[in-house]
Known about the structure:
Elements: E1 2-7, H1 8-12, H2 14-19, H3 26-36, H4 43-50, H5 53-65, H6 91-114, H7 121-131, H8 143-167, E2 171-179, E3 186-196, E4 199-209, H9 218-232, H10 237-242, E5 244-249, H11 253-256, H12 262-268, E6 275-278, H13 280-292, H14 296-314, H15 316-328, H16 345-372, H17 379-389, H18 392-416, H19 425-440, H20 448-451, E7 454-457, E8 462-468, E9 482-487, H21 501-521, H22 523-527, H23 529-532, H24 548-560, H25 562-566, H26 575-590, H27 595-605, H28 611-621, H29 628-640, H30 650-662, H31 668-682, E10 701-703, E11 710-712, H32 715-718, H33 734-737, E12 748-749, E13 754-758
Parallel strand pairs: 2-5, 5-6
Antiparallel strand pairs: 1-13, 2-3, 3-4, 7-8, 8-9, 10-11, 12-13
Amino acid sequence: MVTKIWCKVCRTFINKIKEDTRIRGQAQKDIEAYVIGSAFVTKYTATRHLSSKAHSIGLEYQRLLGEEGEASSSGVVATPGPIKRTQPNIAQAIHSVSDEAYRKLLRSAYIMAVDGLPLSTFKTLVRVQKANGVKLIQGTESSNRAKEFVHVIADVIRSKLTSILCSAPAFSVLSDGSQTRKTGNEKELVMVRVVKDGHPKFFVAALENVDSYGDATAGNLHKSIKHALTEKVKLPADKYTKALVSATADGASVNTGVYNGLLVRLQRDGRPWLVMIHCISHRLELAVKDALMNEAALVEVKELMVTIYYLMKRSGKFKRHFEATGKALECQVYKFPKVHGTRFVGHQRNGLRILLNNWIPLALAIENSIMHSTHSNLNAKLRGILKKLRRPDFLATSCLFFEILDIISALSLKFERGDIHAFEVLPAVEVTKISLQGLLEDESSASLIQKAGYTYDPNSSQISRDLPKEGHMRRSAENRQYSTVSLEKMAQRNLRHGVNDVSESLCQKCIPLLMKRLDDRFSSFNNESVFTSMSWLNPANWREDDVTAEVEAMEAVAAHFSTSLAAVGFQSNKIKREWQMLKVLHKTFYRGTKTKDMWGQIIKYRRNDMPNMCLLVEVAMAIGVSNSTVECGFSILTSMLSDRRLSLNHNTMEDLLLIKANHLVWEEHERDDILEDALKLFMLKRRKLVPDDGVEVGPKKIKLSEDNLQISDIDSCSSSDTDSDSGGSAEPDDEDVNGKSGSESDERETSDGAEATTSNPDNTSDDSSF
């Protein structure tokens, strides 16, 4: 516990300092306090004295006369010249400790945002770190301070995104709107696709509150996107206009309207080259809906899945009864998922797969419930479900529905990944059509029911299937065990050897219609010449003997985006030479390399050799054709908005989404850079530098410099209270070793001349310091 402090330099040269005409009045009283010893010990008073004019004069005399104040060797006492500060700033040590503490707090706030945790959990995170001995800053464990940290990190991410977009030759915008059921506000999520390090990346740019602009009209959506990119991301107006090469949205009329839709407005805003894209994932959904959801038999299957979903959701008693039936049969049963609403094809396919797996256990559970009147209030609904489950033609229709969606979902999942390029869309659709044609022309003896794993015996009116035991699907195929379950008293329907009459006629009707709808929905990719001219991006499409056709296609793409390319110094007359060079390099170094990896390596490592080729590739790869990543962004937002966070401020909501949605895009070193930049931005303002008491900061002694203060345990001098709780024994100085007794033996002399005395009779000290 420090009880008194004085300055060795000022005590030695007090007479010289008082004689100086620049030291008058209160300044002399202040210097006397550090000659006789001051009991008022705080970091502020100590640093104020060390930076005072009187102390600087004393240091100057020390330099001229030596430690003991004797005359110099020349015998002439020199008059101090211009005062030079030889005492380094003590705040350097304080700031180094504080910076490390704030760095840890910013990292905690970043992890909290990435995990989607409420701001109130920041207090727990900080307390846990303090309990484990981590040195942090006092008063920083509140949710308000967490909000401040999140805001600073989000600002740095926006600045980093600005740098990425400004350095790229082109980018595309992907947007979608949603009125959240929890908050009731219309939100517009704006994402950008840009080529970074040779690979196309998706970044969340902003979450706009459309209600602040008025109704969700095309004009207001246009304003919100412009505000997001020019005001929040702070793109220069010229870059925002010329570098934007495509815009993608769903099929709502407010987005794709021919005359005044959002995409048309973006194109009219000085971008005649802008490629307007209706999201390919939504096109696929609409094609499936047009072709399949007009058939009553397939609609009946989907309605059954919806009915069962709500039955399980609203009746916990029957849900437990169904699960108990599965355990009694020793087979694995699954939870029925939601298949209606905003769902892609893959969700419906998954729902059908679970329905086909749970078919017999569900029917047996309903039979048992009706027989024992376990759920008498549900008997009417359960009888209706059981009646459908006993129909062999309904089972065959469900199997056909699953087979069709199984083929379509492969295409849907490819679109949802978001890494597909514009020129790859049509080939992917054509491959899907071939698979559908194969299903239509299938002449195998196995029926659709048999393909689904069922065995049907028309004579005994019984179906059976081998279902894996509970938990065995996690095992390898050879180690799984199965239980055979059966359902009797199936309705007498006339089934042929292959498929039944109903499902066969349905197959002949639905599949050709579905293929036609796919052609109609994706016809624009065939009509848009800029898409067909991008096939050279895939080395599989290259011709060995002639480069003329490939160069012409490149020139067509370059001509379409001439304004965007001209802004970054593109030279079209060098394309042919660079293309020939590229084909030679491909034969030598990149043969067998995947397309995206090849272009990534070329753009990253060979840009100086082929600058124009790289610019053209970056423009072509920046075009985004699917909005699935935007839908994922809304899913992240929904998971953040728990029932206890519905009053979350929009700006805070946007900052949290910006951190969480972009987390996986950054590499590890980029995340570290973001936190370091956030720390610099945070420390630009005056911040609290008081560390917590009771926890050791680091080394017992921190030496600032060879002629500066030597500090032991930063805690006590950071606080205005002279009674510090930090513990530790004092380290004796040279005078202690020489055998000074009494109070002198308790003195600790610091290297710049500041001394402290303690009232500890046992020659120990709490090592208080500045």
